[in-house]
Amino acid sequence: MEGITIALSKGRIFEETLPLLAAAGIVPLENPESSRKLIIPTSRKDARVVVVRATDAPTYVQYGAADVGVAGKDVLIEHGGDGLYQPIDLGIARCRMMVAVPDGFDYENAVRQGARLRVATKYLKIAREHFAAKGVHVDLIKLYGSMELAPLAGLSDAIVDLVSTGNTLKANRLVAVEHIADISARLIVNRAALKLKRGQIAPLLAAISERVAP
Ligand code: ATP
Ligand code: PRP
Q: On the CB side of 55, how many CA atoms lie within 13 Å of its CA?
């Protein structure tokens, strides 16, 4: 496709990327929260935004259906990063990947005793690697959202999920017991597009990096 296509998810990634795109003179002409359109034109004729699920952004960019995109490090680890160049940590959508358990559950002791823990998560790869590195045996249960419910409903002993303010854990009487990784969103670029569309992509990267770390 002519020009550059930028893959963004609705919500925090879209909101927090807006000022960075503006620094490159790119202003989306519609708001994906109110519009049902999935291809949004911008103030620049040679740039458009495609609205994707957060977990799908790396896939669009990997296959070149979008030239650039924004994705959380959590999503990038789970995707694997094939075909993606990740030039800039944008420092947006900051949170932490944590292990959490019901308040009162003695996690340290359960681990010490070598108990086989049931862990519910959307982030199978991150969880698998984390517990393998610690030598802790776990049965992972794949969920697609609302991880905090799993221990309350008796589905699992623990969860691996993102924590920002900690309000969701608190509201569900869970406590974080282990920090796995600090998470923020990165700019991702299709490796072939970087070469073929260098004239458009290089100035975009320059404007964004200047805005991120002036
Ligand atoms: P999908 O809709 O595809 O299931 P999602 O619901 O996780 O994905 P968002 O909630 O928009 O999508 O989150 C996008 C990214 O923002 C996540 O991949 C993560 O990196 C980051 N993020 C998630 N939750 C928070 C939070 N509470 N505070 C800050 N950043 C967060
Ligand atoms: C994420 C994550 C947690 C919550 C943590 O969910 O899966 O449930 O945010 O944020 P907190 O520590 O600030 O409570 P999601 O993106 O679905 O929810 P949100 O948009 O309400 O943050």
A: 5
pLDDT digits (tens, 9 = 90+) for 159-188: 999 999 999 999 999 999 999 999 999 999
Cα distance between residue 169 and residue 176, in whole Å: 8
Instruction: Tell me the whole-structure pTM to 2 decimals.
Output: 0.96
CATH architecture of 4-93+184-212: 3-Layer(aba) Sandwich (3.40)
From the list 121, 99, 94, the residue with the least C-alpha distance to 110 is 99
Structural contact between residues 143 and 154, judged by C-beta atoms closer than 8 angstroms: no
Choose one of 8, 92, 95 to mutate for the ligand 1 pocket test, by most ligand atoms within 8 angstroms of C-beta: 95
What is the best residue among 10, 12, 122 to mutate for testing ligand 1's pocket, by most ligand atoms within 8 Å of CB?
A: 12
* Domain map (residue ranges) of the chain: 4-93+184-212, 95-181
Q: What share of the chain is helix, strand, coil (3-state, %, to 5)?
A: 35, 35, 30
Domain 95-181: give its CATH superfamily. Answer: Periplasmic binding protein-like II (3.40.190.10)
In the chain, the amino acid numbered 162 is L
